[in-house]
């Protein structure tokens, strides 16, 4: 670390991802509450139809998808700070608007704003942290996921505290909004590092020359891995509550804590692996393979205890930095276009968030009581595709090394 004056800036940026961890998880934790507030109908078995909430959650991915082509160039041209402030402002609108929405359609519009927020934060936080920690870009980027995981880990405890105090489920949204506004003020006044700095260029004191982006089968595969990696953890994150109920869990929200704990452990362990020289592209194969095995076990072993173990393992192997390693690998391929390539990789991720969760809402509704198990099979199929893509990337890197 050779830019110590930017450490407070990095902490403020990581905090936005802590809030993001809450933002992308909280709707899934309060599906019944929101379904009732938005006028959802009841299913044949008497339970409320929560599929409309999954539809709204999918809008987060759509909003992100729509604005990522804009967010990357804004970040590269006008600065990371501008991108970050836009993201914070949109997230404030999301947290306030989603709890005030009288129906699914208004909620959908605010969820789109939440996706906009995510896209601008992606193109601010990831490039900024890699430009601050120029010698540890992979690890710096993985800690964005660590920040998200802390938020997801603490969320069930926040929910429990709110419930024990007989407070409205909307309380968390208002509290988070206040913290976001404070963090936005800090981002507005703190210093940011020069854009598009690499370790090599910093050593020689030169500014990198802009290069035209040329895509290869390897870079395209990395972009596609962002789709499969996001699919794996988003399907689990937003559908595990119903699986818990199907398997007889009395408190399925506890799965969330184990999931977040697994992802936090993975970040620390993976960071240590990378520091010892393990190549990120190897992890892109190993972790999805572990996730696939665990998903298969969860399909065949239908007990509450296996869900807690499964939550931890899926958190470790699916949400433990695979997406972030794909982003940092892509950034390494395009060192002078970090904002743009981050946008492109995150577009792939957003497509997964929108397409996969939209499909999941149909599976949930059509599958009835067995819907959660069908979601598991769907998740297995998507994750296996990710493994095949990662094997291809490893093969291409091996050829390059030999050459």
What are the SSEs and their pairings?
Elements: H1 7-23, H2 26-29, H3 31-37, H4 51-78, H5 80-100, H6 104-132, H7 137-164, H8 171-189, H9 199-204, H10 217-246, H11 254-275, H12 280-300, H13 304-317, H14 322-333, H15 338-367, H16 371-402
Helix pairs in contact: 1-5, 1-6, 1-7, 1-8, 3-4, 4-5, 4-6, 4-15, 5-6, 5-8, 6-7, 6-15, 7-11, 7-14, 10-13, 10-14, 10-15, 10-16, 11-13, 12-13, 12-14, 12-16, 14-15, 15-16
Can you describe this structure?
This protein is mostly helical and 403 residues long. Helix 1 packs antiparallel against helix 8 (171-189), helix 4 runs antiparallel to helix 15 (338-367) and helix 10 runs antiparallel to helix 13. It has 16 helices and no strands. It has helices at 7-23, 26-29, 31-37, 51-78, 80-100, 104-132, 137-164, 171-189, 199-204, 217-246, 254-275, 280-300, 304-317, 322-333, 338-367, 371-402. The chain is 79% helix and 0% strand.
How many strand units? 0
Shape field: globular
Rg, rounded, reads: 20 Å
CATH architecture: Up-down Bundle
User: Which CATH class applies here?
Assistant: Mainly Alpha
Our measurement of the CA-to-CA distance between the termini, rounded to an integer number of angstroms, reads: 33 Å
Question: How helix-rich are the residues, as a percent range?
Answer: over 70%
Could you give the order of the helices and strands? Answer: HHHHHHHHHHHHHHHH
- Domain count: the total is 1
Main sheet makeup? none
CATH superfamily: MFS general substrate transporter like domains
Number of discrete helical segments? 16
């Amino acid at each position: 670390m050779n830019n110590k004056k930017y450490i407070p800036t990095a902490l403020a940026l990581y905090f936005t991802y802590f809030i993001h961890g809450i933002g992308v998880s909280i709707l899934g934790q309060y599906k019944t509450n929101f379904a009732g507030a938005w006028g959802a109908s009841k299913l044949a078995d008497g339970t409320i139809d929560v599929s409309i909430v999954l539809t709204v959650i999918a809008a987060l991915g759509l909003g992100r998808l729509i604005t990522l082509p804009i967010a990357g160039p804004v970040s590269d041209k006008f600065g990371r700070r501008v991108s970050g402030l836009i993201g914070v402002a949109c997230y404030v609108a999301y947290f306030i608007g989603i709890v005030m929405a009288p129906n699914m359609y208004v909620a959908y519009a605010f969820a789109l704003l939440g996706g906009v927020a995510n896209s601008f934060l992606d193109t601010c936080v990831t490039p900024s942290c890699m430009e601050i920690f120029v010698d540890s870009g992979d690890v710096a980027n993985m800690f964005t996921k660590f920040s998200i995981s802390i938020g997801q880990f603490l969320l069930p405890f926040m929910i429990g505290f709110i419930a024990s105090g007989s407070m409205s489920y909307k309380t968390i949204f208002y509290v988070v909004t206040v913290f976001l506004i404070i963090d936005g003020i800090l981002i507005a006044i703190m210093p940011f590092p020069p854009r598009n700095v690499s370790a090599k260029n910093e050593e020689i004191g030169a500014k990198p020359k802009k290069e035209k982006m040329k895509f290869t089968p390897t870079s395209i595969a990395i972009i596609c891995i962002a789709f499969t990696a996001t699919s794996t953890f988003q399907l689990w994150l937003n559908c595990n509550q119903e699986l818990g109920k199907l398997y007889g869990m009395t408190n399925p929200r506890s799965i969330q804590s184990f999931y977040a704990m697994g992802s936090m452990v993975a970040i620390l362990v993976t960071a240590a692996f990378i520091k010892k020289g393990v190549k990120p592209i190897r992890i892109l194969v190993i972790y999805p393979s572990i996730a696939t095995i665990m998903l298969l076990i969860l399909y065949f072993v239908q007990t509450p205890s296996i869900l807690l173990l499964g939550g931890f393992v899926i958190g470790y192997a699916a949400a433990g930095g695979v997406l972030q390693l794909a982003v940092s690998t892509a950034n390494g391929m395009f060192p002078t276009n970090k904002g743009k390539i981050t946008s492109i990789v995150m577009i792939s991720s957003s497509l997964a968030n929108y397409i996969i969760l939209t499909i999941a809402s149909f599976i949930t509704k059509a599958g009835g009581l067995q819907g959660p198990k069908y979601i598991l099979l769907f998740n297995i199929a998507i994750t296996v595709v990710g493994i095949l893509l990662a094997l291809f990337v490893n093969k291409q890197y091996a050829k390059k090394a030999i050459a």
